[in-house]
């Protein structure tokens, strides 16, 4: 991922890579296909010990970074998750951990359990899409005396099936609120959904008059807008890093195949048409690496152009990543679309990430809004 990682960052990335190769090889990923959670608890705790869940948490809760910025370090893990099509709630748990770290005085115990890997979390933000947009106000959160009440449905929610805690975004009057809901709270119903990505689990989460102490609020009622924007950027950055890892794995598989597969007495890689195709794919891949890293650094440093760079990364990787995966399948020929071949595992990861935290079209619209605002305020 990073153009010039430090020795500590490279060691961290390599350790994660070797761990995933040993613990979740392709055979294990296929075995977990029908597992309800999609990963093992001991596997996740071991990953937490390696630092997967602590990079966005504060020092007081056992967190800490390897380099200057924990989010940049975490993209190294996300990249390896993509190159291995690894299971586990890496993105949602870290999105929730990052948000809770900003309110650790009220939710320190939950944050500690996430950092230690004894619990996982899911962010209930997205709702059924209508007209290509995502509404974030379908769930209603109201304060009733010393209680908070949650009503409505969120769908799709990554990792809700296995999550111990659900961070729920909902409308409170004219603002947005966050509530931390234990998975086993009365009134919570989780319905598993089918997904194109067989390595991860999604669900619809229904909240029927879920009543919790007012202390379950994360931040002030109606004041979650800034936290939501931060969470969306963190989730998008980690998803982009995962997608780049999946793209790299698919590209490497296809280059190796093109040199090994012979047609009319010569390797596929020797044909001029495929050389041109590989040149295009390599350009898309390197550009994806670059824009993903730039977006991560911008969010980590709270740069003024972070919103624009995140949307640019999501739009570019979502669009050209799809083109690259399709070219990889075409070059493989018939075997590329079979379940027995490994290529589809990475294509599925990229397809799911394409719509998580906003589609390319939605992020292009965001960029247009930003440019329009900048032009109007010159």
Main beta sheet: 4 strands, antiparallel
Largest sheet, order of strands side by side?
A: 2-3-7-6
Helix tally equals 11
Spell the H/E element sequence: HHHHHHEEEEEEEHEEHHHH
pLDDT < 50 stretches: 132-137
Task: State the helical fraction.
Answer: 40-55%
Beta fraction: 15-25%
Q: What is the overall silhouette?
A: globular
Tally the beta strands. Answer: 9
Overall mean pLDDT score? 93
Q: Give the radius of gyration.
A: 21 Å
Secondary-structure-based class equals alpha+beta
Span between termini: 36 Å
Overall description:
- With 378 residues, the chain is of the alpha+beta class.
- The protein is 52% helix and 16% strand.
- It is built from 11 helices and 9 strands.
- The protein has helices at residues 7-23, 26-31, 41-50, 70-84, 90-101, 104-116, 225-260, 272-300, 306-332, 343-355, 360-376; strands at residues 121-124, 140-144, 147-158, 165-172, 175-182, 188-193, 202-213, 262-263, 266-267.
- The strands form 3 sheets. Strands 2-3-7-6 form a 4-stranded antiparallel sheet, with no helix packed on it. A 3-stranded mixed sheet has the order 1-4-5, with helices on one face.
- A hairpin with a 2-residue loop joins strand 2 and strand 3.
- Helix 7 runs antiparallel to helix 10 (343-355).
- The longest helix is centred in the middle third of the chain and has 36 residues, at 225-260.
- Mean pLDDT is 93; it is low at 132-137.
């Amino acid at each position: 991922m990073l153009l010039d990682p430090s020795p500590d960052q490279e060691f961290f990335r390599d350790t994660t890579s070797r761990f995933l190769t040993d613990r979740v090889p392709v055979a294990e990923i296929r075995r977990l296909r029908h597992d309800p959670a999609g990963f093992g608890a001991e596997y996740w705790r071991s990953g937490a010990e390696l630092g997967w869940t602590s990079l966005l948490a504060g020092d007081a809760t056992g967190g800490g970074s390897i380099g200057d910025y924990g989010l940049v370090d975490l993209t190294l893990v996300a990249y390896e998750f993509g190159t291995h099509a690894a299971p586990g709630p890496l993105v949602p748990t870290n999105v929730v951990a990052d948000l809770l770290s900003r309110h650790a005085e009220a939710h320190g115990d939950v944050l500690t359990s996430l950092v230690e890997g004894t619990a996982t979390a899911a962010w209930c933000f997205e709702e059924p899409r209508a007209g290509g947009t995502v509404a974030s106000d379908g769930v209603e959160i109201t304060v009733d005396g010393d209680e908070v009440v949650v009503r409505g449905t969120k769908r799709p929610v990554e990792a809700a099936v296995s999550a111990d805690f659900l961070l729920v975004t909902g409308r409170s009057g004219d603002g947005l609120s966050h509530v931390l809901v234990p998975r086993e709270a009365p009134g919570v119903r989780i319905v598993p959904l089918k997904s194109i990505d067989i390595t991860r689990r999604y669900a619809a989460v229904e909240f029927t008059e879920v009543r919790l102490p007012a202390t379950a609020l994360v931040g002030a009622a109606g004041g979650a807008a800034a936290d939501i924007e931060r969470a969306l950027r963190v989730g998008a950055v980690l998803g982009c890093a995962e997608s780049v890892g999946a793209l790299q794995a698919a590209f490497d598989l296809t280059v190796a195949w093109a040199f090994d597969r012979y047609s009319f007495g010569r390797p596929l890689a020797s044909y001029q048409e495929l050389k041109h195709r590989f040149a295009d794919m390599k350009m898309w891949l390197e550009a994806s690496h670059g824009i993903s890293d730039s977006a991560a650094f911008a969010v980590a440093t709270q740069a003024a152009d972070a919103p624009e760079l995140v949307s640019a990364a999501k739009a570019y990787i979502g669009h050209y990543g799809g083109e690259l995966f399709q070219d990889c399948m075409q070059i493989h020929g018939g075997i590329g679309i079979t379940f027995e071949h490994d290529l589809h595992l990475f294509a599925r990861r990229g397809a799911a990430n394409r719509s998580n935290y906003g589609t390319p079209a939605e992020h292009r619209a965001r960029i247009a809004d930003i440019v329009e605002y900048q032009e109007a305020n010159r």
